[in-house]
Amino acid sequence: MGIWLYVRGLDKSLRRTDAFGGIAAERPAPSSTGAVNLLLVGSDSRDPDVQLDQAGGWRSDTLILMHIPSSRDRAYLVSIPRDLYVPIPQSADAACDSGRRAKINAAVAWGGLPLAVRTVECFTDVRIDHVVAIDFAGFEQVTDALGGVELYVERDITSIHKPYRTFRKGMNHMNGAEALDWVRQRKQFPDGDFARMRHQQEFLRALLDKAASTGTLSNPTKLNAFLRATADAVTVDQGFSLMQFALDFRKLRGENLHFLTSPHNGTAMINGESVVVSDREKALAMYQAIADDRMAEWFAENRAEQDQ
Question: Which domains does the chain have, with CATH numbers?
Answer without folding.
Answer: 2-306 (3.40.630.190)
